[in-house]
Design a protein that fits this description.
five-stranded mixed β-sheet; 6 helices; 11 strands; globular
């Protein structure tokens, strides 16, 4: 269950193509996100949304208070869940100027933002993000008695497989953000070591998505 709140509203259209979105009946309007965050991407999909624009900027350079952190995690969760459905997401990102030059790659499995601010060389980072983005770049799946993460954010395939129940429980707990001290420390450190969680203030957020649309046969991915 989410510990964060959804963004208050998004703009949505029925098609990916901006020209098609200009046609009558293609604009779905400003849609309020009033339900549980974990169900909003499904609801938007069922309404016909194939292009979604988030308000404001997802600011990872801001303060670390609980309220601000919850808002950032909520926005990232929506981008992640819509990316998993191959929805075109229009969003803006501000990174911490003190971050390493390649820190953007932690989020590079997400739909590329329209703008990246804050980071030195952010323009080049955004171009690399756009060139290298594809569906299924960093995902997790649940099998009988195990969870597996398949991660290509850094070029090569990295696989992380765990059959201990606490790993699955921790993923479920962190999926929409949770206080870092509310999950087993050893499991969290394993995920941090693989850059599978993002710390946003007091919250830890699960980075990979659980795929909703396969780019090709799942065995290939």
């Amino acid at each position: 269950m989410s510990t964060t709140l959804s963004p208050p509203a998004v703009l949505a259209w029925r098609d990916y193509d901006p020209a098609a979105c200009e046609l009558p009946g293609m604009f779905l309007g400003e849609l309020a996100l009033s339900g549980p965050l974990e169900g909003e991407s499904e609801r938007l999909w069922r309404l016909g949304a194939r292009r979604v624009r988030l308000p404001g900027t997802v600011d990872l350079a801001g303060g670390t208070g609980p309220g601000r952190a919850a808002g950032v995690v909520a926005a990232l969760s929506l981008v992640r869940d819509l990316t998993a459905r191959a929805v075109l997401v229009e969003w803006d990102l501000r990174l911490d100027p003190a971050a390493a030059a390649d820190d953007w790659q932690v989020l590079s499995h997400l739909q590329p933002p329209r703008r990246v601010e804050g980071l030195a060389g952010s323009g080049e980072a955004l171009r690399a993000w756009r060139r290298g983005h594809y569906l299924c770049k960093c995902l997790w799946r649940k099998g009988p008695g195990f969870v597996q993460i398949r991660d290509r954010r850094w070029g090569e395939l990295r696989r992380f497989t765990a059959d201990e129940p606490e790993y699955e429980r921790t993923i479920e707990r962190l999926a929409y953000g949770a206080p870092a001290d509310s999950v087993p420390a050893a499991v969290l450190e394993d995920f941090r070591g693989e850059k599978l969680v993002l710390d946003v203030g007091p919250l830890a957020w699960w980075v990979p998505y659980r795929i909703s649309r396969w780019l090709q046969e799942s065995m290939t991915i």
